[in-house]
Amino acid sequence: MIPDALQAWLAMGGDARHVWPAWALALAVLVGCALHARRERRRVLDALRRQARRDDSRHGDSRCAESRCAESRCDRTGQHRDAHESA
Amino acid sequence: MWRAIHRLGSPKVFYAVAGRLQPWCWGLATLLLLAGSLWGLVWAPADYQQGDSVRILYVHVPAALLAQSVFVLLAAAGGVYLVWRIKLADMLAASIAPFGALMTLLALVSGSLWGLPTWGTWWVWDARLTAMLIQLFLYLGVIALRGAYTSADSGARAASLLALVGVVNVPIIKFSVDWWQTLHQSATFSLVSPPSMPASMWLPLLVMVAGFHGFFVALALTRTRSEILRRESRTRWVRERVAGTTGEAAR
């Protein structure tokens, strides 16, 4: 099934068991590092967004408390309503 | 020039500049690595003595060179942090140390795999190999020290100091093959003499060395940007950048 030339290349002149593991490890390290960096960036951004939402909701609550506003007034602004819902 | 360097020391400016550079670095590194791999695995000739096992050279040498380059950068960043207290230098150091350790490990393992068919053994306590193993322990020490303190600043200073002291091992690795009788062959590339191998072998090797270094630059930019976001999460500019973005959009 496999052409002879490809078979000969894969056999690496009898050194396949040394050459391929070395290259496979290099590939695994490089691809693994690239994927890890990508996932790390996503994780950091997600954490920052969660933190921003928490801060917003806390802010919203304190603004309500400070102004002693009625529930109806909070409901008029979308941000305050969100804050109450998430809290 | 000093003003430009000083400006780049600001996490906010670095974040923006690195964001513009990183797609180009990733692209260039991928191209170089693909071209170098094809060249090294398919078109480069087998060695007349070592046969095809010589193709391990194309991952072993770039990994070993990069492991040393990263350590020198780690020590430089440590020095900058200790003397000028520039926090960006420590963010960079924290981002690159694990990759340097991995490159050292890759150089050691690929070297062992190459040693089996050519030397008849996977390990000897040869000067070059031992110095490289010490470098792996130095990397692990730098990484461990950073996390060993409750205060982040104390950990950063201890790690910087170890990197500065440990950089003395880099010239020892480089000159070990000249200073001592070793089983390991001498350097392939030199600034003062032409390579000891034919162009059909050192050209793909050069492409792979450039590809590995390009990959490192791209990775360092990406990871340092994440580290900046993490440490500067309470600053106004990070909040503004993150607000209202989804997925990868926080450029």
Summary, kept brief:
Chain A is an all-alpha fold and 87 residues long. Chain A has helices spanning 4-11, 16-67, 71-76, 78-86. Chain B is mainly α and 251 residues long.
Give the helices and strands, then pairings.
The complex is a heterodimer of chains A (87) and B (251).
Chain A: H1 4-11, H2 16-67, H3 71-76, H4 78-86
Helix pairs in contact in A: 2-4
Chain B: H1 2-8, H2 11-43, H3 57-84, H4 87-119, H5 127-147, H6 152-166, H7 169-179, H8 199-231, H9 236-242
Helix pairs in contact in B: 2-8, 3-4, 3-6, 3-8, 4-5, 4-8, 5-6, 5-7
- Alpha carbon gap, first and last residue of chain B: 26 Å
Output the number of helix runs of chain A.
Answer: 4
N- and C-termini, Cα separation of chain A: 64 Å
What integer is the average pLDDT of chain A?
77
Structural class of chain B: mainly alpha
Count interface residues per chain for the largest interface: A-B, 28 and 41 residues
Beta strands of chain B, count: 0
- The poorly predicted ranges of chain A are 64-87
Task: Tell me about this structure.
The complex is a heterodimer of chains A (87) and B (251). The longest helix of chain A has 52 residues, at 16-67. In chain A, 86% of the residues lie in helices and 0% in strands. With 87 residues, chain A is an all-alpha fold. Chain A is built from 4 helices and no strands. Chain B has 251 residues and is mainly α. Helix content of chain B is 75%, strand content 0%. Chain B has 9 helices and no strands. Chain B has helices spanning 2-8, 11-43, 57-84, 87-119, 127-147, 152-166, 169-179, 199-231, 236-242. In chain B, helix 4 (87-119) runs antiparallel to helix 5, helix 5 (127-147) runs antiparallel to helix 6 and helix 5 packs antiparallel against helix 7 (169-179). The model of chain B has no long low-confidence stretch (mean pLDDT 92).
